[in-house]
Amino acid sequence: MAMIARRSKSSVHLLHKVLFSDHPLPCSYTQRQTYVDVYMKWKKDSFFDSIDTIHRSVQLKPLIALKNCIVSCSPNDYCIPISVISKKGLELGIPIKVARFLRLYPSVFEEFTGPNYNLPWFKLTQRAIELDREEREVYLKFKDDISLRLKKLILMSGREQRLPLKIIQGLQWYLGLPDEFLRRPEDNLDGCFRVVEMEDGLKGIAVDVHGSERFLSVMQMNAMRRGIYSGVEGEAIEFPLYPSKGLRLKRKIADWFDEFQKFPYVSPYEDYSGLDPNSDIAEKRVVGVLHELLSLFVEHAAERKKLLCLRKYLGLPQKVHKAFERYPHIFNLSLMNKTCTAILKEAYCDRGAIEEHPLAKVRKRYIKLMKESEGILRRRRFNNKPIDQGDSNIKDLDCTDDEDKKFTT
Predict the structure, then answer these.
(1) CA-CA distance, 96 to 81, in Å (whole number)?
(2) What is the spatial distance between Cα 12 and Cα 216, in angstroms, rounded to a whole number?
(3) Taking the domains of the chain in order of start, what are their residue ranges?
(4) Fewest beta carbons less than 10 Å away: which of 67, 95, 378, 409?
(5) What is the model's pTM?
């Protein structure tokens, strides 16, 4: 991870070019401009790598998608034959065969023999049904809060105040939006939202805001609470820092960052069209946008690549992903599950700084229920008892012909 230390206040454009470049400038050139390239070894943080709500979402997301599919197909008895969902793996984001995935979580999905043709059926367990009802109650009770988070995301687009519907759908899991919100946005969103036509024939969602209505970021609200921010435009707000154990910035980097903290803070909800994209203030706005964006998400984290689609609409630079690396005291990058996840440190190091998403507790209970499946499967293996699949002649529609022959012999 490369960090840049600045020794002078001149050549701001060059600093931005160095910061956002994949390749450092030649040594002679940097010395002539009194800049120094400083390289720092990547530091893994075991604390953030162990947060279940972040890293278990890889399994939780398709599990809830399957649960919703079962509920929508059979809202009364919560059970369906495997034939109904066996071909929906790609649509539901399941990386393996659907039947195999269902059998990995017996605490959530219970398998039994169907009434016709001896096909396997799956139904939700009683605890999964209770969690589904609790989840729907949260959507109903906190509908205004969830709509507000969506509104804030759209308002980060500056003057446009609109985002393509497909981009919002891509962030639906992180925002905690229920499926029906975006299936029929005209019916489920309040009057301040409008469905509009955007470029390239895309549908989008726009927000109408009254002239006197002002939105404050988490940074601004916390600074006001501490009495260090009055709300005047151009005031400086320093980002809270949370160094990882064993991670120390070199002196040159620390000095550069101290100067960076003193630049004016530009709210993500303010018009940024007048900012010079090559200025330090624009760089600080980028960090502020990423901070506010992660604060709106359920786990206050997201796959880094999933945020790249927002560059064009939120006024972010081409190499915005490098901002997570340049500010290791604000963000953490985790490489668990073979993916790079950006995590907002403040949400986990200062519990009172950022409000917990109303859906977070429900997801934690889902994860706890998922973990119980590991114990169930372990006991089955220990007792040397096969999974109860009823009649041995049942055919799994997800099986290939070779697998089917092995199963029936």
Answers:
(1) 18
(2) 28
(3) 2-39+216-349, 52-134+364-408, 143-210
(4) 409
(5) 0.83
pLDDT digits (tens, 9 = 90+) for 317-363: 998 988 998 899 999 999 998 899 999 999 999 989 999 999 999 99
Q: Give Cα 92 to chain centroid, integer Å.
A: 17
Q: Which residues contact 233 (CB under 8 A, 6 or more apart)?
A: 270
Amino acid at residue number 137 = E
- Residue-wise pLDDT for 376-404, tens only, equals 999 988 886 555 555 444 444 454 444 44
| All residues at 6 or more sequence positions from 365 whose CB lies less than 8 Å from its CB, including other chains | 131, 134
Range with the poorest average pLDDT among 37-41, 83-87, 278-282: 37-41
Closest CA relative to residue 58, chosen from 340, 375, 397: 340
| % of the chain surpassing 70 pLDDT | 83
* Tens-place pLDDT, residues 150-174: 999 999 998 889 999 999 999 999 9
Q: Is 313 left (phi over 0), alpha (psi -120 to 50) or beta?
A: alpha
Tokens of 400: 């290939």
Residue 199: predicted pLDDT: 83
Side chain identity at residue 364, one-letter code: K
Residue 300 C-alpha from the chain's centroid:
7
Please determine, for residue 125, whether its predicted confidence score (pLDDT) is greater than 80: yes
343 DSSP β-pair partners: 301, 332
**Degrees (nearest 5) of the Cα angle 257, 261, 266?**
135
CB count in 10 Å sphere of residue 156: 25
